[in-house]
């Protein structure tokens, strides 16, 4: 399994930061590996909300349907995508700080089927992808 973990600071209030990040369609704004993203269920973000995310991964476009599988309003969201070749689980936690908020981001990517044999290479690529996403997230959250 490939894992990525990072913590970033935001000048935005925790509630605003959480609202922005729990709407996973915003990944297209801050993650350079995401080609497009959209909220595909009606209503506000919560348990069961779904997001279609198209990522550029290892030279290919991969469409994933992420669903919110855990939701603590204003604090924590866990999204999961299952595809024939991989499973992705992203956990975002936001907590208030004196200067805004702190975001902790955990991402796990597991190869399935034939891709599971490439997990060592997948882990190296995932680290680079995660670092670029982290940098984009820091820029987006600093723009408050």
Give a structural overview.
- With 144 residues, this protein is an alpha+beta fold.
- The chain has one domain: START domain (Alpha-D-Glucose-1,6-Bisphosphate, Chain A, domain 4, 2-Layer Sandwich), CATH 3.30.530.
- It has three helices and seven strands, in the order E-H-H-E-E-E-E-E-E-H.
- The protein has a seven-stranded antiparallel sheet with strand order 1-7-6-5-4-3-2.
Structure in a nutshell:
This protein has helices at 14-22, 27-30, 119-142; strands at residues 2-10, 34-39, 50-57, 60-72, 76-82, 86-97, 100-111. By secondary structure, it is of the alpha+beta class. It has a single domain (2-142), classed as 2-Layer Sandwich (Alpha-D-Glucose-1,6-Bisphosphate, Chain A, domain 4), CATH 3.30.530.
List keywords for this structure.
144 residues, alpha+beta, Alpha-D-Glucose-1,6-Bisphosphate, Chain A, domain 4, seven-stranded antiparallel beta sheet
CATH topology: Alpha-D-Glucose-1,6-Bisphosphate, Chain A, domain 4
* Sheet with the most strands: spatial strand order: 1-7-6-5-4-3-2
Structural category? alpha+beta
Please indicate the percent range of residues in DSSP E strands (runs of 2 or more): over 45%
Q: Report Rg.
A: 15 Å
């Amino acid at each position: 399994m490939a894992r990525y973990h990072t913590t970033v600071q935001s000048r935005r209030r925790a509630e605003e930061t959480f609202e922005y990040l729990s709407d996973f369609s915003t990944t297209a704004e801050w993650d350079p590996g995401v080609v497009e993203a959209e909220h595909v269920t009606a209503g506000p973000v919560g348990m069961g909300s779904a997001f279609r995310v198209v990522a550029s991964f290892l030279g290919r476009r991969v469409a994933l349907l992420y669903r919110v599988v855990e939701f603590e309003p204003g604090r924590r969201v866990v999204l999961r995508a299952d595809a024939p070749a991989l499973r992705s689980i992203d956990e975002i936690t936001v907590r208030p700080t004196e200067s805004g908020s702190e975001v902790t981001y955990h991402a796990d990517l597991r190869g399935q089927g034939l891709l599971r044999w490439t997990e060592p290479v997948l882990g190296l690529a995932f680290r680079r992808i995660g670092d670029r996403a982290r940098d984009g997230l820091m820029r987006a959250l600093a723009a408050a």
